[in-house]
Each structure stands twice: as C-alpha cells, then as structure tokens.
C-alpha cells in the first residue's frame, strides 16, 4: 500500500465575494517533502495555506492531511504550523521567550528540558543561538525574521506551512537563510509547503515545485522538469532571468521550426505537426557567442555544425549583469536575448553583425 500524501487538495474552490481565489486547485505533497508553491501575487498562494490550516473553509473540494478529510476539523486539531508573511513577536521579551511561548500552550507543552533542547536546536540551525537572551525589540530585522520562523519550526507539527518567510529580508540574508532552510528541511524531514513568488527561491529550495496561476495548479514537478519541460509559456517564463526567448514561427514539412520571414530554420526537440503555428523557447544562457559576423546584415539561414546551429544577426543592445552581459540580437524581424561572459561581449558594437550558436 502506498502512503497517503501528507497534504492533499482535491479540486478546491474558494471565492471571496466576486473574486475567485482558488479555482479547482489540486495539490499533493508527499510525507517529508519540501514543496515550493510558486506564483505571482494574487495567484491564491496564501489562500491555499489558510485552507490547509483550516483558517478558511473551501466552498467545494476537499483538504486531506495524511489521507484524512479535514472538513469540520478545527485549525488547532490539524497539527500544522503556519508562518505568515507579517509576523507578530513580543518585542520586550527575549528571543528565547518568543521561541518558547508556542511550547507553553497546553496543546504543545513539552517537559522543560525537552523544550530547552528543541529551542536550542532550532536557534542553532537559524544562526541565532547567541542572541537568545536579547529582547527581540533590539534585534535587527533579519534576526527578528529568524526568530519568527523559529517560532513556527519549534512546534512539533506534522507539516509546516511557510508563507513567503524571507520576503522582508535583503538579498544577501535571503540567500543565507535559503541555505539554512534547506538544511532544516533535510535534517528535520518534516513535510514543508513553502510559498514564494521568487522562482530563484523555489529552484533553490523545492524537492518539487508547483506553479500556481489564477487559483489553479499549472504544473508540478522537479526543478529539472519545470526547467526543461515547461507545460506552457507561463511556466517557461516563470523560470530564468533574463527570461526565456519565445520565438513565434511555423513548423516546416520536415518538422523544423521556421521563423516568420524565413530567415532561419531550427530543428525541434519535440515533434510538432507540419504547418502548425508554434513558439520556440530558447534559454538566453544556452545560446553561445561565436564572434563578430562577416556580413553586414542577416545571413539567410542557419548552418548546421553537427551539434550546434549557427545564426547571424545584428547586435541591438548589450547590458552588464555583473560578471555576465546580456546581449540582444536581431535576427530577421525577431529579437533574441543571450547571456555571455563579460569578456566575450567586449568586442560587440551596436548594429554590427554577430554570429551565434544555438545547441
Ligand atoms: P497570493 O497569496 O498568491 O498573493 P491570495 O491567496 O492572497 O494570493 O489571494 C488570491 C485572490 O483572492 C486575490 O485576488 C485576492 O485579492 C483575493 N483575496 C484573498 N483574500 C481575500 C479576502 N479576505 N477578501 C477578498 N478577497 C481576497
Ligand atoms: Mg500571499
């Protein structure tokens, strides 16, 4: 017998007046899994967590925890711990007291030595072990957010529901905390549903990722599946900066992609019916720069060099992204974005021809 999912949502609908928050959402999180729910603002992420926690009742559909239907089960009987975007701490009490208070509730009361041990472990994992005696009001924002997260993680729970817990931190702290959260996930092996609008965070953290849009799950899978086999252009555009190039064109009789003006053809990696209007997705970092081109304009077709296809276009703009440079190239009527090491882009001049390789 297979184990029931730790968290299961079956076609959950939820409306607030005229606005639909969840529109038949399906979700399954396995026991011990770190699952990231990724979606833009307003997609229904917070509503999903509240529905699981029992803070909102679905209009229809079912929420199951460990295979048990949660209809009519009170929030405190569901055994999940939820962390909200905005967190409330007791500013005059110490970090230790703030971490300890959830363990003083009758429901989670632990013997004193066990509570101390748990708090110590969590504080260590979150890097606030040395701050436990300080009043929370005297901690930095980042330290406070760690305490808030600790307050959730310290509770014995069957699942953690984390709602954009790093959103108030600066980029550097966010990166450090990502590593810690990942460590916590692999040490504790407690089922975690982690909500974010940041695809980098989702890719860094999730054993699996679900992409939510307009209250529906568009696709779930591993990061590799979502990156290489996006279900649609929304998912494709959700991952990677700069964004994936989406080039409109048609499929030739040989099953190749053909640009609208016929400037180039590329072999397709997935079968497509001849004559179909399609969009070809090419990640900016997958395109190589071969060097300045010879001609003064567009060469009519790509040349197949075995593994890579060569294209010639004109440099449109280039922009520094730290150690790399984003180059926009015009080929025929289309624009292609690519990212190359800064040094490789040094010789590029606007409106000059450039040769590219597409694997
Ligand atoms: P997310 O967390 O992904 O940003 P939410 O779950 O908060 O999205 O919201 C989903 C949709 O439901 C949005 O259109 C939002 O405006 C609406 N919504 C959420 N909560 C309420 C509420 N309490 N009253 C009215 N509309 C709400
Ligand atoms: Mg939200």
Structure overview:
With 359 residues, the protein is an alpha+beta fold. It has two domains: 7-238, 3-Layer(aba) Sandwich (Rossmann fold), CATH 3.40.50.300; 245-358, OB fold (Dihydrolipoamide Acetyltransferase, E2P). The chain is 23% helix and 35% strand. The protein has nine helices and 20 strands. The strands form four sheets. It has a six-stranded mixed beta sheet, sandwiched between helices. The longest helix has 18 residues, at 171-188. The two termini are 44 Å apart. Residues 295-302 have low confidence and may be disordered. The structure holds adenosine-5'-diphosphate (ADP) and magnesium ion (MG). Adenosine-5'-diphosphate (ADP) binds next to strand 2 and helix 1.
Break the fold down into its secondary structure elements and pairings.
Elements lengths: L6 E10 L2 E11 L4 E5 L6 H9 L6 E6 L2 E2 L10 E4 L11 H6 L11 H14 L15 H13 L5 E5 L7 H18 L2 E6 L2 H7 L2 E6 L2 E6 L1 H6 L4 H6 L6 E7 L4 E3 L6 E3 L9 E6 L5 E5 L10 E3 L2 E14 L2 E8 L2 E8 H4 L7 E6 L1
Parallel strand pairs: 3-8, 3-9, 6-7, 7-8
Antiparallel strand pairs: 1-2, 1-4, 4-5, 9-10, 11-12, 11-14, 12-13, 15-20, 16-17, 17-18, 17-20, 18-19
The protein binds adenosine-5'-diphosphate and magnesium ion (MG).
Name some characteristics of this structure.
Rossmann fold; globular; alpha+beta; 20 strands; binds magnesium ion; binds adenosine-5'-diphosphate; OB fold (Dihydrolipoamide Acetyltransferase, E2P); 2 domains; 359 residues; 6-stranded antiparallel sheet
